Each structure stands twice: as structure tokens, then as C-alpha cells.
């Protein structure tokens, strides 16, 4: 079976799944010297985008700048106005120019879109939502309103660590009432990272959440296994957000 490079695209909460940091990213970790762990950030939390209440259907994916273009992949499905989605629906989507499929997971959440958005943007607590992460902290913000987040995860039973500085864009309008939050790799000892969350309101107390993941790293991993891992990571990421939205942890 042919092994190929692997690349993360969506959305991580998500991107941003625990499996990507503990499994896929572990395969691509280099021997680069890890910089000192950045200190806590004094920057304000990102502002919330206005909440929406009208149902929406999923539009074509947002364009990306460089090939392979995960955004050019066909939509896996259209979101129904009021989906049931009691459990995450997981699928893989072919990406033009890449031999690795994109992992996609969609779930319905009994919570307003504003609450779901707050959980996704609570980047400093990603290590609590995704237990494979050892550290997650906000380290800066850009003048455009993007948030830089430092994440770190152990591999090889703690003998090594993978680390990355990820940049999360502020929420942007997506097909009328929907929103999208994208992230990319700024630096780290991993391969490229792209992640994208998509949120759609289904009435005032329901939200449809999708995470898309696509990664490319130089590692001898079979394409089919990579696609399975990405789908698994997307599924566990949306599950974690739903659990936190519907059953928030006690103080």
C-alpha cells in the first residue's frame, strides 16, 4: 500500500483533535529543539460573532489559497434544516490534489449557537476538552483579531513532545446565518495544520456543528489509515464540544 504525506484541514476544536496531536502529529514530529513554553497571555478573549437563529443549509466550502485544496472537495452532505443527529455522522471526502481524504464529522447540539461558539473559542481550555493535550494556552492576538494558541502533547510515553503554535481566525459569516472558524499552523515541530469549524443555527436552542480535518506530513503512513484517523479525530472533537455544551462541568 502506498504511503503518502498527510495534511489537516477544516476546523478544534478542532482542528485540532486529540488524535491528531497524539498519533498523526507524532509521526511527523522532528528532532527540532522545542522553544521555551510561552507564558500566559494577557490578551482579551476573542469577541463573539452575532448569534443567528434562522435555519441554514451548507453552502460550497470556502476557497483556500494553496494546492492541494481541501476546500475544493465536494460537500459530504447538505445540512437539513432541523437535523436529528443524536450521534456524530462521520465521513471522508476526497481532496483534489491529495491522496489523503479529509475527515469530516457533524453533530447536532441542544444549545444556542452563541454557547457552542464560546466553547470552541475557549482555546486555553482545549487541554480539558481534549485529554490528549498536555498544554493549551493563548499566547497572542493579531491586529485582525486572530488568536494564537500554543499546544503541546506527549508522544512515545512522554519521551518526546509535539508542539505547535496555531492561529485561529475570528468567526466569519458563512452562508447567511452560518459561521466558520478556521485555524492554521504558525510554527512547531509538526507538519502543516489546517482546521475548520462550521456552525449553523437550527432555531434558538439548536446548533449543527461540523469539523473538517485534512493533514499532510512526511511520514510512511498508508493513505487509508490517515483518512480513518482524521475521521476519528473529527468525531471525537465534535463529541467533546457537544458534551461541554449540553452537560457543562461543575465548577
Description:
- Helix 1 (18-28) packs antiparallel against helix 4.
- This protein has 4 helices and 11 strands; from the N terminus they run βαββααββββββββα.
- The strands form 2 sheets. Strands 2, 3, 4, 5, 6, 7, 8, 9 and 10 form a 9-stranded antiparallel beta sheet that branches. A two-stranded antiparallel sheet has the order 1-11.
- A hairpin with a 3-residue loop joins strand 8 and strand 9.
- It is globular, with a radius of gyration of 17 Å.
- The N and C termini lie far apart (49 Å).
- The protein has 251 residues and is α+β, with helices and mostly antiparallel strands.
Describe how the helices and strands are arranged.
Elements: E1 3-4, H1 18-28, E2 89-93, E3 102-109, H2 113-120, H3 126-129, E4 135-141, E5 147-155, E6 160-168, E7 172-174, E8 178-188, E9 192-201, E10 207-216, E11 221-222, H4 223-246
Antiparallel strand pairs: 1-11, 2-3, 3-10, 4-5, 5-6, 6-8, 7-8, 8-9, 9-10
Helix pairs in contact: 1-4, 2-4
